[in-house]
Specification:
The protein has helices at residues 24-46, 50-68, 82-89, 96-104, 106-126, 130-147, 159-173, 180-190. By secondary structure, it is mainly alpha-helical.
């Protein structure tokens, strides 16, 4: 025709192989896309617990600070006090003896909860002793579920049980990324 010869396509002619008659180019494109997808999937898996860690950490820091800045919370009696809350839930809690224990010193119990929430939240956010922080968060959530929110009907409307379940993945996995625990572990390996 114009002096050109019919030759099979050279793989070097088209870097994506779109001219390959046997579909090899499509296969390569599929493999490249699958590889990219697999890389994104690996990244997503690695960082999957980070949103939960941030949410729980911020929530518990906020809850602790909210209690520490509310003077009415630490009173034995009065509206919004820890003492009134404990007396109000005593008979409807799953473990009244736990409420009785808190009622021996409502102010002390209030400070313990507030500082516990603050420590758990900070440990979770920074990933420092992350499993210990998650255990603390789970225990706080469990105690609040068995006392304060036990009477909520139906049970799934009470938030403390959901918080308890949310702590379990962090208790099992710790804070494998963006954490002081990981940084300290890497420093120990270097030595």
């Amino acid at each position: 025709m114009t002096g050109q010869t019919n030759r099979p396509p050279d793989p070097g002619d088209d870097p994506h192989g779109t001219d390959a008659p046997d579909g090899a180019g499509a296969g390569r494109r599929f493999a490249e896309r699958k590889s990219t997808f697999d890389q994104w999937k690996a990244i997503a898996s690695r960082y999957a617990l980070l949103p939960l860690r941030i949410f729980l950490g911020v929530t518990f820091v906020y809850a602790g600070l909210d209690k520490l800045t509310d003077s009415a919370f630490f009173a034995d009696t009065g509206s919004g006090s820890i003492g009134e809350v404990m007396r109000g839930v005593r008979d409807s809690s799953a473990i009244p003896a736990l409420v009785d224990l808190a009622l021996r010193s409502p102010t002390g119990f209030g400070y313990a909860i507030a500082f516990g929430e603050l420590a758990v939240g900070l440990g979770t956010l920074f990933g420092l002793f992350a499993r210990v922080a998650a255990l603390g968060g789970a225990l706080i959530s469990l105690s609040l579920w068995l006392t304060v929110s036990w009477q909520v009907q139906p049970y799934y409307l009470g938030n403390d049980l959901a918080y308890l379940m949310s702590w379990l993945p962090l208790l099992l996995a710790g804070a494998p990324v963006l954490s002081l625990d990981r940084l300290l572990a890497e420093r120990r390996r270097i030595r």
